[in-house]
Write a structure and sequence with these properties.
The protein is α+β, with helices and mostly antiparallel strands. It contains 14 helices and 14 strands. Strands 1, 2, 3, 4, 5, 6, 7, 8, 9, 10, 11, 12, 13 and 14 form a 14-stranded mixed β-sheet that branches. Helix 8 packs across helix 9 (233-248). The protein is flat, with a radius of gyration of 40 Å. The chain starts with 6 loop residues before the first strand and ends in a 31-residue tail after the last helix.
Amino acid sequence: MRPQLGIDLGDGWLARVHRSDAALHEVAQEWDALWQRCPSATPFQARAWLTAWWRHYGSPGALRLAVARRDDELVGLGAFHSSRGGQVLVPLGGDLCDWTDVLADPSCEAQALDALSAALLSEPGWRVIDLPEVRADAVALRWAARWRGTVRHEAGSMCAELPARPFDDVVAAIPGSSTRQSMRRSLRKMDAAGLTETAVDRDGAPDAVVRLLTLHAEQWAERGGMTPEHGKPRFARFLTLAVPDMVAGGQATLTDYHLDGETVATNLNLVGADIVGGYLYGARPDLFGRVNVTAMLMRTSLGDAVAHHASTFSMLRGRETYKSTWQAHEAPNQRLLMGRPGRREVVAYAAALRARAGLADVARERVPAVREGLLKARSWLRNPARAREEIAAAAKAGGVKVRAGLGRAGEELRDPAALAGKAAAAGRAARDKVGGAAKEVAGAAREKAPAVRDTVKDTTRDALRRTRDAATTLRRRHATPAADPAAAEPGPAPTPEPTTPPADPPAQG
C-alpha cells in the first residue's frame, strides 16, 4: 500500500502532483492500464513514449506529473513540465507529439478531471497550461469546459486523415480512372519485382530503428529538407528506447521491406486506442525509381489500422500535396490555453502566440525563394557532385543565351543601314516621349496660373491692409496730449505725421 500523499478530496479521491522522475516508473503499470481504458487515447500519451522523451529531452526538477486516484486506483493523469521560468506548464513530448492530451477513466471522467485541476491549482508558480496540439475528440476539451479559470482556444496544426479500411477499397475510391489504373499498375509492379515486407517484433525493434533512421537520412540526403531533429543522436536514443516497449504493448508497428535480398525500407506506425498514425519511414534513394513508395507504405499502414480495429488512419501533421491523392480530409488541431482562476496572463500569452504565428505566416508567404534557396544550398552541401552538375548545367544554359545575344549583335553589325534605322527609330520614340511630357507640364502650368495669380493678389492686398491699420494706430498714439503743464505753452508747431503709408512689404505667395 503506497503512502497516501497529496490533496484528500473526500469519498476516496486523492489528487497529487509528482515532481520526482522516479514517479514515472512508480506509476508505469497503472499508467499503461489507464491508457488502455481510455477510448480516445493516442500513442503520444503512451507511457513508453513520454518517459523515453523525458529521459532524453527533459530538464531536472521541471517534471509536473498530475495524478488523480479513486480508492487508490489511478483514474486520471496529466504529464507536464514547467517552462519559461516556471510560468507555463506544457505536456511532455514537445514537438515530437502530433497530439497532446490528458488521460481520464471514462467511468468517472468528470471527477477525475476535477481532481487533476485541484492537483495542478495547488502547485505554485505557473500561470498558463499550454496544450499545443489537441484533437477534436480529446479529453482535454472536456477538461477545459470544466476549468474554473480563463480558457483560450487557438489554431493548431493541420492533420490529414482518412477512414481505416482495406487498401483495395481506398484505391477504388480514388477519383479518376487513370489515377486508379496507374496505382494498380504500381502495385502489380511491386509484386512482380518481388518486394516483400516483414513485421518486426520487440527483440528486433532496436536494430530496426537504427535501419529506419539510416535510410531516412539517406533518402533526404538526395533532396535536402530533412527535419533537423531526426538526424540528431538524442532522437535516435529516444526512439530506440521508446519503440521496443510500444511494439510489445501494441502501441507501434515496425515493418521492414525487402527487395533482391536486401532491406530497402523501414516504416514506423504509432497505434492509439482508435487511430493509427504514419510517423516515420526511411527508404533507399534508388527505391523511388523502382516502385511507388507511397503506395507501398499506404498498403501496410491501412492494413495495420484495420488489424488494430481502428476507425481512422492519420498521415499526421502537414499539408503535403500527395495526401490529397488518397482522399484524406483535413483534421485541424487546436491549441488549448488554460489560466489560473482570477488571473489574465493567459490573454497576453495567447496574443503573443498569435503574433508569433503571424510572423511565421508572413515568412512562409513572402520569402519562399529564400526557403528554396536554403534547401538548395543544403542539398548541394550534402551532395557536392550533384551541385557541380547543376552548376555546370546552369552555366551551359547561360552560355547558350550569351552566344545567342552575340549572334544577334553580329548580324546587326553586318547590316549598318538596318542598325542606323533602329537607332533613328529609338531616337524618334525618345523625342516623342520628351515632347509629350513637356506639353503635359506646360498644360498643367497654364491651368494653375490663374489660381496662383489670385493667391498672390489676395495675399498682397491683405498685407497692405494690415500695414495701413498699424500706421493709423501709431499716429493716434503720438497725437495724445502730454500730462506735463509745460506742454500747454506755445511753441513751434509740430511736424505733421506723414499721410503716405510706408512701402508695402513684399508679398508672400
